[in-house]
């Protein structure tokens, strides 16, 4: 029942995405209508996903987290898409903002597809871990793209904060190795959830620290490079766990 509702609402959201993209080239009224429609649809989708997560029961919290993370990714992608649509409104077809809009729309559809795959996998215990890991790998890749962009973080943090966040990577690495050895679905799901947070926190802290006023341009470049290398190395580890 929940799966059918999620599928139906997700399809409506994809249609809203198309309207948002086409709305950038049309009137402000149509764009506003598309934005409002997509906001209503994402609210409905979040509700049915939360009901679906609740129906799993409290004895499987890690899988509930996987579902909630999936809808959070869709909501974030929609927010970015609306921002990109506003930036591209009334601009010519070859304007750079139009390419950003297409990229945001692609991420949006990718995340909706990922959500649907996750919902399907939840019903099959044998594939839950695999799907959770695939979703986490996709999420980390998207986070890395944001990290590598020229966008300056809204706030900065100390180098110490960045160092503190690397401890999460160490813990997640140990968990990933253990999951690869045990091959138990619950261990793999817990690894996926922990990895997602650890890498995201590390990338955020690393970028914020690299833009600290006391940091030179040379040190900033090195910090950003090592943040990328760490993430790529961790992605390779998760790919190996997935293979196992």
TrEMBL record:
Protein keywords: Cytoplasm
Name under which the protein is recorded: TLN2 protein
MF-aspect GO terms: actin filament binding; integrin binding
Keyword Repeat among UniProt keywords: no
Top-level taxon: Eukaryota
Primary localisation category: cytoplasm
Taxonomic source organism: Brachypodius melanocephalos (black-headed bulbul)
The Talin IBS2B domain, residue ranges: 8-119, 129-241
Gene Ontology BP, a term: cell-cell adhesion
A Pfam family of this chain: Talin_IBS2B
Compartments where located: Cytoplasm
Gene Ontology CC annotations of this record: cytoplasm; focal adhesion; plasma membrane
């Amino acid at each position: 029942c929940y799966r059918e509702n999620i599928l139906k609402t997700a399809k409506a959201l994809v249609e809203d995405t198309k309207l948002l993209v086409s709305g950038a080239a049309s009137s402000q009224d149509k764009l506003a209508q598309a934005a409002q429609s997509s906001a209503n649809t994402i609210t409905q989708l979040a509700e049915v996903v939360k009901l679906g997560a609740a129906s799993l029961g409290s004895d499987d919290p890690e899988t509930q987290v996987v579902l909630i993370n999936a809808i959070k990714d869709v909501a974030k992608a929609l927010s970015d898409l609306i921002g990109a649509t506003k930036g591209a409104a009334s601009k010519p077809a070859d304007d750079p903002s139009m390419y950003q809009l297409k990229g945001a729309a692609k991420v949006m559809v990718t995340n909706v597809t990922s959500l649907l795959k996750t919902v399907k996998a939840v019903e099959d215990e044998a594939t839950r871990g695999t799907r959770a890991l695939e979703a986490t790998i996709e999420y980390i890749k998207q986070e890395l793209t944001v990290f590598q962009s020229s966008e300056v973080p809204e706030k900065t943090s100390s180098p110490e904060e960045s160092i503190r966040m690397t401890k999460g990577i160490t813990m997640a690495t140990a968990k990933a190795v253990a999951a690869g050895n045990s091959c138990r679905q619950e261990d793999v799901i817990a690894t996926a959830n922990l990895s997602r947070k650890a890498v995201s926190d590390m990338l955020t802290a690393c970028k914020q620290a690299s833009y600290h006023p006391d940091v030179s341009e040379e040190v900033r470049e090195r910090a950003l490079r090592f943040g990328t290398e760490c993430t790529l190395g961790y992605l390779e580890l998760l790919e190996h766990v997935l293979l196992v």
